[in-house]
Amino acid sequence: MTQQKRTCVSAPGKVLISGGYLVLFNEFSGLVAATSSRFVSTVSTVDSEDEKQKKIVVRSPQFEGGKWVYRVGKDLKLENEGSDRNKYVEYAVALSLKLAKAANPSAFDANFTPKSNLDICIVGHNDFYSQRPQLESLNLPLTSSSLASLDPFCHTLTTIANVHKTGLGSSAAMITSLVAALVQHFDVIALPDPTPASQTTPPSKKRKRGRSKHASAKKSVETPSTTNTEEIDHTNALRIAHNTSQFIHCLAQGKIGSGFDVSSAVYGSHTYTRFTPSVLDALMSECEASTIYGVPGSRILEVIQSDKWDSKVERVQLPPGVELMLADVDAGSSTPSLVKGILEWRTKNPKECKTLWKSLHTQNLLIAETLRTLHTTSHTSPKEYAKTLAQIKTTHAETWSTSTSAVTKHFAAVHAAFLNVRTHLQEMSRLAGVPVEPESQTRLLDEIAKEKGVVMCGVPGAGGFDAIFVLVVGKENRESKVGPLLATADSGAGLRREIVEEVEGLARFF
Ligand SMILES: Nc1ncnc2c1ncn2[C@@H]1O[C@H](COP(=O)(O)OP(=O)(O)OP(=O)(O)O)[C@@H](O)[C@H]1O
Ligand SMILES: C[C@@](O)(CCOP(=O)(O)O)CC(=O)O
């Protein structure tokens, strides 16, 4: 198999820190942190021995049965050779190809000639899936150092249908990285070139496992130019990758969600205000009525390029020194049934919901605003900021508000606002009879909140029994009380091109 052209793109996972449920409506917003854990999709045009039948092979080497072979038919109809269907993968590949052919036919034909096939490889960082079976098979205890000792992109020892996900948004990060890799491969978009590690990182610097070697040093594609409060520049490439991924993710899920997960996979950490769902309604119905293969590529392109896409993305970065950690609770909750319960309560009790959500939204905005202020302060008053971090790390949050330091007071304000958020979520759980912050999670969170350096901790996204997150200064030695933690967010960057050889653990799949 001789490779002619290769394109590799990664996209981060997500943690919705605040704004769960509210973010479904565009009068509110959600604060989403992109994680350092990423999906990496690699598309290669390879030589074919059978000129009569073009094929696309998609490999997901972390899973039993993780391989799908598609025969490419008339009008780019994909015919799955096996019996196992992966709708997310098939829709992402088929619709991206249709779009690519409509948008740039000559680049499409040049990179997918009758003498070539496509080889696609999809892998996700270990944090997307519970690693308990791996650790058990290796007789390793459930600790973060055991997690860190695993191979990057390690095998899950199971099938995709049976794997335990951790809630980092595997489907959104997978679809976004795959769609972006495909449209980049066929020159529909031009993301910035990947920067070789040799040009950005001193050779002596040790790099973390399973992460792109140039990740921390490289300027991310969506980094705003001056302050971190201004709206992120929606470059055309990101806009096309975003709109296409939103469309395909909605279609694969069979519904139009808020889309915060796809948005953070593209743009990184930000406050997200959703797009108006009607931009997709008609196209979704057309795809359902005549299958995705009955809809012309030009029609998809028209919707993707429409100026009706109105989601809003405002940059928020975690202040330096504040780290996001996640506990893989592995109990699990069904997001759709939680959402159903909350939306039913909202319909039946509009006044009660309006009052509670208005007040919740105020706290959510305060948190995002104060995190931005802290980020700015870390640049404008670096000495005072560093001094404060050292104090925060060794003290309890309840003592911060009495400090004379303005920076410490900002930390106290974030802490207090998030406690208010939790009170509101507990109230919503009670009123709606839906376990958004269930009592067992409340007890666990109250325990964690008492630890030194903890700025906030809560249930991410829809809540329930899935996971908990902690924002903490000085994360060392945390896991004894909290349980197995996955270290997650850092730079908060979004979509990024990669060099296969420079993503640790990736080259072995080629
Ligand atoms: N590594 C992968 N390779 C191929 N397909 C994948 C992979 N990971 C996820 N998927 C696809 O995404 C689907 C999971 O989507 P689902 O919406 O249930 O997860 P999610 O809610 O995004 O997960 P999470 O719990 O991580 O937030 C799988 O059934 C599969 O089709
Ligand atoms: C409840 C909701 O607002 C957030 C769900 O978040 P998560 O999948 O639990 O991280 C739904 C959505 O925004 O699509």
List the main descriptive attributes of the protein structure presented here.
single chain, Alpha-Beta Plaits, nine-stranded mixed sheet, binds adenosine-5'-triphosphate, binds (3R)-3-hydroxy-3-methyl-5-(phosphonooxy)pentanoic acid
Report on the architecture of this protein.
Residues 204-217 have a biased composition (Basic residues). It is an enzyme of class 2 (transferase). Keywords: ATP-binding, Kinase, Lipid biosynthesis, Lipid metabolism, Nucleotide-binding, Steroid biosynthesis, Steroid metabolism, Transferase. One of its GO terms (molecular function) is phosphomevalonate kinase activity. InterPro entries: Erg8 (IPR016005), GHMP_kinase_C_sf (IPR036554), Phosphomevalonate_kinase (IPR035102), Ribosomal_Su5_D2-typ_SF (IPR020568), Ribsml_uS5_D2-typ_fold_subgr (IPR014721). The chain has 510 residues and is α+β, with helices and mostly antiparallel strands. The protein folds into two domains: 3-315 and 493-509, Ribosomal Protein S5, domain 2 (2-Layer Sandwich), CATH 3.30.230.10; 322-487, Alpha-Beta Plaits. Helix content is 40%, strand content 17%. The chain is built from 16 helices and 13 strands. It has helices at residues 87-103, 105-111, 132-137, 144-149, 170-185, 197-200, 236-253, 260-267, 278-290, 297-304, 335-348, 350-380, 382-393, 406-432, 439-449, 479-482, and strands at 3-18, 30-47, 55-59, 67-72, 78-80, 116-124, 270-273, 312-315, 322-328, 454-458, 467-473, 485-487, 496-497. Strands 1, 2, 3, 4, 5, 6, 7, 8 and 13 form a nine-stranded mixed β-sheet that branches. A hairpin with a 7-residue loop joins β3 and β4. α7 runs antiparallel to α8. The protein is globular.
